[in-house]
Amino acid sequence: MLSKRPMHEAFIQKELTDKILSVCKQVYHIVRQECPNEDEHFYLATTWFRKHFRDKRPYRQGEELSEAELGEVSWTETMQFAILEPPDSIRAMSLYIVHKECPREYLKYVNEYNRLMKPVKAAGDHEGFMEVYRLRNPRIVARSEQEES
Questions:
Q1: Could you tell me if 117 and 93 are in contact, meaning their C-beta atoms sit under 8 angstroms apart?
Q2: pLDDT by residue for the chain (149 residues), tens digit each?
Q3: Apex CA 124: angle with CA 119 and CA 130, to 5°?
Q4: How far apart are CA 56 and CA 37, in angstroms?
Q5: Contact status, residue 24 vs residue 45, Cβ threshold 8 Å
């Protein structure tokens, strides 16, 4: 006789995955409406931040992160997706979160994720990536350069 527990856990993971994908997409569209003149990285980092901070839980298991720490992590975690065009950017980021939070469910999406991430891989080394990043996120780059000077 099969145990009900694995089936129940699989259902919970599927529900959590659906929630992650739905919430990320909804929050992303809200952020774009609230701040229409920002760069893609801003939209993604803000979506990531709101999704994790709203849940009042850390990115990974462990102690809770402060708002400032979570803000820093959100910029780092979302940078790779900031060179993608929407809606691929938010979809890839959402699947990345699924990968971190529901690895078994992520296996169902791995081919889609790899397809979405081809432009990131094609950007190649750090310099190639940063060249594309600067083109896609000029406002953020300008603000960063102003802060450094």
A1: no
A2: 444 557 778 889 999 999 999 999 999 999 999 999 999 999 999 999 988 776 555 545 556 777 788 788 899 999 999 999 999 999 999 999 999 999 999 999 999 999 999 999 999 877 899 999 999 999 999 998 888 87
A3: 85
A4: 28
A5: no
Q: Could you give the CA distance from residue 107 to residue 13 in angstroms, rounded to a whole number? A: 12
Question: What contacts 60, CB < 8 A, 6 or more positions away?
Answer: 100
**Residue 79 DSSP symbol:** G
Tokens of 110: 């791995």
Cβ-contact 59, 53 below 8 angstroms: no
Instruction: Give the predicted TM-score (pTM) of the model.
Output: 0.86
The encoded tokens of residue 63 equal 């102690």
Quote the tokens at residue 66: 């402060």
Please give the single-letter amino acid code of residue 11.
Answer: F
